[in-house]
Specification:
Elements (H helix, E strand, L loop, with lengths): L1 H13 L7 H6 L1 H11 L6 H10 L2 H6 L29 H18 L2
Amino acid sequence: MGGTRDQLADCRNQYDILVVKYEDMIQNSGREIRRIAEFLGKKVSDDDVKVVSERTSFKNQTSTKLFETEDGSRSSLLRKGVVGDWENHFTDDSEAKNMENIAKELYAKFGI
C-alpha cells in the first residue's frame, strides 16, 4: 500500500487536484458544488447550485436508467448512498478497520 500512498503524494504535488469526499457531499452538497465550481474557475448562482444538487443526488441517480444493466437491474456501482456503508462490503471487521486506518492516515497526511 506504500506505493499507492506515494503515488497519491506525487499526484497532489505534481497536479492541481481537488479532493472531494462523498461524506462532505452528503453533509453539505451546496458547499461542495461551490468549491468544485471555484476550483474550475466557474461562477455559479444559488439556482445553479440547487439544480446541480438535485440532479446529482443519490435519489435522482438511482431513479434514472443511466445505471441500469442490460437486464434492467441497477448496477452495483450504486449501492445504498449511505455514508460508511463501505464497511459492509469487507469479509471481516479487520479488513474494514485496516481500510479505515489507511483512509484516516491519508486524510491527515494530505489535509483532505
